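Hi everyone, sorry if this is the wrong subforum. Our group has a chain we'd like a structural model of before ordering constructs, and none of us has done structure prediction before. Sequence below.
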Amino acid sequence: MGVYSEIAADLRDNVQDRSPTIQDAAELASRRADDRQQAEEEQAKALLSQMQQNADDSPSPSNLEADKKAEEDRKRQEHEQAEAKRKAEWEARQRAKEEAEQAAWENAVAMSDDEVMAASMKRVGDDSERLTRRNMKQCVTEYIQTLCLEDVAFARNVMHPRKNMVNCFRYINRKALEFAKQEMEDNDVKPSAEGYGTDVPDGLCYQWAEEYFKDLNAKEDRGQEEKFVPRPYYGGRSSTTKKAEKKKAEKPAAKKEKAANTAKENESLDDQLSFDSLEVSA
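Answer:
Right subforum, don't worry. Here is the predicted structure as tokens:
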């Protein structure tokens, strides 16, 4: 009995000595579980907060539409500014041309009588070198040069920046055609494939040449009027629509260019100044 009693006492003492250690371990495990749970809760809160922030930051349909409209307004404004600059440059070139023409005319007006006579004769001679109809060129040119020596006012008209012998002979061509048409009407002659031949008196050719230099509003001096053509704005539409509208806008431009080229070809033919095309002899 004594030995067993001692063993039981030892076991009881051991259990009493280990009880605080077990209790500490349980408390530690409980604290760790609480910390882990708290960390998970905080992580969940942070994730939820991030999701809410992303939702707030994502643009709504109304914001997207406003941004799109603002971008379109910016592009349109840039286009309008570029067009305003291009128009200002075009107007500056037109003013420079008009100023140069006015300066040339004022210079001619300021010349003395002898100077304007000599300058007008030289100008008529220089212009005549461009012509190919020799017999007609020489006769009309000599007539105009003689008038320049006889009439100072006429010589000043010859020095006008828009006046030249090429346009003078175009004026004569136009008058000769009108003369031939009027003669056909007077004689009740109908146009035919064979054409119509008539004689234009020399005196009429000289008269028309003189009229041309006295007429400061002659049709032949007007030339082709230049106009500023604004470029349309194609922003804010699909690429297919832009291409279709651009192609549609290019068609009239191509027609105008073709017409301009045809006019130039006609001008080059007019420069030859042959009455044979009208079947009118001078």
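For your construct planning: Residues 67-110 form one domain. Residues 265-282 have pLDDT under 50 and may be disordered.
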